[in-house]
Amino acid sequence: MTENNRNHDTDPGADGSDRVIATPTSTEERVISGTSEEQGSHEGAYSAEEAHPRPEEVQRKGERTAAVWFTLAFLGGVGFLVSYFLFPPDAQGDPSIAHPLVGQWANMLMGGTLTLSLFGIGAGMTVWARQVMPHYEVANDYDELPSSPEEKSSFSDFFMRGADESGFTRRPLMRRTLLLAMAPLGVAPIVLLRDTGPLPGDTLRHTLWEPGMHMVVEGTHREGDSQWIHEGDLRAGGMISALPYVEPDPEHPHGLSLDAQAKTVILLIRMDESDFSDEMTREQRNWTHNGIVAYSKICTHVGCPAALYESGSHRILCPCHQSTFDAANGAKVVFGPANRPLPMLPITVDEEGYLVADGDFSEPVGPTFWDAQRGE
Amino acid sequence: MSRTTQAPKALRNAGNYIDDRFHLAKTGKKQLGKVFPNHWSFMLGEIALYSFIILLVTGVFLTLWFKPSMAEIVYDGSYERLQGVPMSEAYASTLYINFDVRGGMLIRQIHHWAALIFVAAMLVHMLRVFFTGAFRKPREINWLIGVALFALAMVEGLFGYSLPDDLPSGMGVRILQGVLMALPIIGTYASMFLFGGEFPGEDIIPRLYMLHILLIPGILLALIGAHMLILWHQKHTQYPGKGHTEKRVVGTPMLPAFAVKAGGFFFFVFAVTAGLSAFVQVNPIHLFGPFTPTSITSGLQPDWYMGFMEGALRIFPNWFDVDVAGYSLATAVLVPGLVIPGLIFGALALWPFIEQWLSGDKRHHNVADRPRNAPVRTGMGVAGITFYGLLWMAGANDVLSETFSVSLYATTWFFRIAVIVGPIIGFIVTKRICLGLQLRDREQLEHGYESGTIQQLPSGEFIEVHKESSEDTVHVLESKEPVSRIEVQAFDENGVEAPSSRGLMGRLRLRLADWYTRDNVSFEGVRPHSGHHLHHGAHEEEHSPEQDREEATT
């Protein structure tokens, strides 16, 4: 939109009037000087010296160009309406756009015509402004911002007279009790927020896992005991993302609510027992079974599932912020921002060799909170 | 064109009807004549405003079908690929908008694209205001409103793209919850209250929905209204030029030219948004699948404006985490999640007041600074951009690592170092460039510009002819004001310390003020074209004490 020309061309057009600032480019200047009578008869919102009307033939050409754009825009708009009706539901009432390819065509056709319509209006208006309208800049004074001292003191007098008259300044008992009366009301909205949720209590410290609970692979259909994970399902170097097995109920066809899944999901990792780090405590080793370890899958940083496992280095990586844990060493943090190791789930097998939990997690799962490692 | 038509009868009647009730004729004439300075950079804020309008319109449309519910259902809708998959009603209703509502996909994409453009336009608009000093007195309040708008728009966007409850956006909510949990003492309470229990619960989507469509847009609307009213009342700043003074603003009047230009520009902005939405897919939630707290995909990215926080979370190490007696202070979450955005927005909000404190400049400013004429400010701005930009890129370090086959941890280390070193280099380089440009400006002001014409003198010497710059250019060059600075002299003539320089704050202020104003090319006493027009040998004089000084103090 800028028409200010600040390069080294000297602008010859500034005439006497102090309200005329920008001058037309040299070609326009020439044209204007040729149509001085027309300029004299200008009766626009601003005086003739300020407004530089475009010559009639430029305006006529501008009008035609703008009209072409507006016509295109009209056709685009009609096209938009038409393309809406080009994709009706089929005889059964199923929408035709449900097919991704058809949906994509519908999107492009409707979007394309809408774009044409909007662009045409924009282009037409721009041609209108640039070729039909006179071309000029005007000046306007900035307001003097600070009021004059007299105005200020007069206001101040008025205000304080009013305040005194009201007694607010001279009746401290009334003033203070009013403020006092308002204080509890100010707190009320915050208090009302109390029932937005339960207190944490110790819910964050416990999960569904309990001794003897079987496991199923996360993400598949989890009904029936045929889905239980057997210790033989894991080879050394293998990793399975698993959930506890819970009988399905009508509300949760897969047995577990999202809340429960968010806390109970684990990574089952098997490696050669000799790969376990010497730093692992006896207790931690007792929580493993035949080289199988179970860690919470939820990262202790901010709670993404730490889903990537590299069997060669025994590293678990969270793809969100790249916290890296050593699966061979109690999921100790070896890189990245996580605060503490992934909590470990004690596991063992039942008589038939199915993996079962041997208790709950060693620590609260998920993002580290203030007293997460405080114990009960 | 050269005759004034009388107002049509219908218009006159309507006008009279309104004026009978509001007495608006005089005000109306004045306001319709409001002057809008012409410069492309004044259109950045317009883009933000128009994007907001597009967001309001398309957002209302989306609410007709969207169900803000986390009730778990098994999908049985018309998008075949997800049939039989358990998902929330929010996600299913978004699929419905995509695949059952004609134009629904288009409106969703326009809404999303407009949001991306909205925040981007605000950011670039804010940078323009920063670098040209348009935030200076009397416009500090409007700057603060702008900073608040930017922060709110980010939150609004985050909540908005979380609503469909698809896998990546749900993970964004998870990260939000993780950051809340890390708050000392109140963290678990804040999380339980916001989510109505444990994560993810059943309440968060309805609550984010309320915030996204009612509370935050309401505040945004009010603040945008205030922003515009203040702008209208104080009038625009303007760039230096002939006739552009601190007392008078020069530009296109509202009626007729600006109204038509701005109207046309609105349609251009809308057209670009619609064109992108027609042909460039954005946020294809039907490809992402519904949220489950147990699944993840690699290469996850938030919308661009959350990228700097994502990057900060990735590169900030856990070395400063405090674990004492079972209590944890997870600084690796708290610093990137709260301290870094706090610093960025805090610095933005405080900058006008810091600058005023250092320069002691309490005057009104209506003519914008050229960025080169405020080298420290411009340098700080570039340092800020570098910091933000590197954090933003760090938010994609896994993608960078994969694309360029670099070790993932190497990218982390690169960004850890770069976010500290980069801004410093950016500051120094920018300040040097500014000072160099100042020197060139002074030379051009004194000697005119290099015409490219080579002449041979009778003596055989070759010279380049310098020509006088245009009047407009001279106005621009002369717009550089002497640097306003507080009295750095700590002692008066009697050896008594000035009261303002006593104490820790006083001394800090002096040091900072010196740093802020020290390096600068003085234009004092420079008269336009006072140098030899035909002579090019002025370099010795040009090597002025100021120049020596800034070289010494870098």
From TrEMBL, chain A:
Residues 1-11, 49-61 have a biased composition (Basic and acidic residues). SUPFAM superfamilies: ISP domain (SSF50022). The keyword Electron transport applies. One of its GO terms (cellular component) is plasma membrane. GO terms for molecular function: 2 iron, 2 sulfur cluster binding; metal ion binding; monooxygenase activity; oxidoreductase activity, acting on paired donors, with incorporation or reduction of molecular oxygen. Residues 287-356 form the Rieske domain. It is a multi-pass membrane protein. Keywords: 2Fe-2S, Cell membrane, Disulfide bond, Electron transport, Iron, Iron-sulfur, Membrane, Metal-binding, Oxidoreductase, Respiratory chain, Transmembrane, Transmembrane helix, Transport. The chain crosses the membrane at residues 66-87, 107-129, 177-193. Pfam families: QcrA_N, Rieske. Residues 1-61 are annotated as: Disordered. InterPro entries: QcrA_N, Rieske_2Fe-2S, Rieske_2Fe-2S_sf, Rieske_Fe-S_prot. The keyword Metal-binding applies. It is found in: Cell membrane. Iron-sulfur subunit of the cytochrome bc1 complex, an essential component of the respiratory electron transport chain required for ATP synthesis. The bc1 complex catalyzes the oxidation of menaquinol and the reduction of cytochrome c in the respiratory chain. The bc1 complex operates through a Q-cycle mechanism that couples electron transfer to generation of the proton gradient that drives ATP synthesis. Belongs to the Rieske iron-sulfur protein family. This is Cytochrome bc1 complex Rieske iron-sulfur subunit. It comes from Streptomonospora alba.
TrEMBL record, chain B:
It is found in: Cell membrane. Its cofactor is heme. Residues 537-554 have a biased composition (Basic and acidic residues). Its EC number is 7.1.1.8. It catalyses: a quinol + 2 Fe(III)-[cytochrome c](out) = a quinone + 2 Fe(II)-[cytochrome c](out) + 2 H(+)(out). Pfam families: Cytochrom_B_N_2. Residues 14-240 form the Cytochrome b/b6 N-terminal region profile domain. One of its GO terms (molecular function) is oxidoreductase activity. The keyword NADP does not apply. The keyword Hydrolase does not apply. Residues 526-554 are annotated as: Disordered. The chain crosses the membrane at residues 47-66, 112-131, 143-163, 175-196, 208-232, 253-280, 327-353, 374-393, 413-430. One of its GO terms (cellular component) is plasma membrane. InterPro entries: Cyt_b/b6_N, Cytb/b6-like_sf, Di-haem_cyt_TM. Keywords: Cell membrane, Electron transport, Heme, Iron, Membrane, Metal-binding, Respiratory chain, Translocase, Transmembrane, Transmembrane helix, Transport. One of its GO terms (biological process) is respiratory electron transport chain. This is Cytochrome bc1 complex cytochrome b subunit. It comes from Streptomonospora alba.
